[in-house]
Design goal:
Length: about 130
């Protein structure tokens, strides 16, 4: 008669038991791990925010709110808005820039030489003044 080995039969039963026993072993208390994590996070200091923005301009904050500079982007009706601004006495600056996404309704902003801001809304290339502050 052939002799059957018990190893192939018992091995699938023994391995999970051994692994399960290892998972229950204490490897350090959670209080110690929490204290170590707190020490590490306290030792890592965040760098202060840069004084300058991505475009190189100086960052400005008013009442704790950072003012973000909008990149100048000309649009389809920029020339029309510039002419409207000129009629209202607003001249200077780089011109009328698109503030909103390009589409059927667009918002334009133009900085005047005297510090005022001219805003216009164009719908299907029909523009009208929103404000001049």
């Amino acid at each position: 008669m052939k002799r059957m080995s018990l190893l192939p039969v018992l091995l699938p039963l023994i391995v999970p038991l051994v692994l399960a026993a290892c998972s229950g072993m204490p490897f350090g208390s959670s209080k110690e791990q929490d204290a170590e994590a707190a020490r590490r996070s306290a030792s890592l200091k965040k760098a202060p925010p840069s004084e300058f923005g991505d475009d190189g301009s100086k960052r400005v904050a008013i009442n704790g709110v950072e003012i973000v500079r909008v990149e100048f982007k000309p649009g389809v009706s920029s020339v029309t808005v510039e002419n409207m601004a000129k009629q209202s006495g607003c001249t200077g600056g780089p011109g009328a820039g698109l503030v909103s996404d390009a589409g059927p309704v667009e918002m334009y902003r133009m900085a005047c030489g005297d510090g005022r801001v001219f805003l216009a809304r164009c719908e299907l290339r029909q523009c009208r003044t929103v404000s001049l502050k």
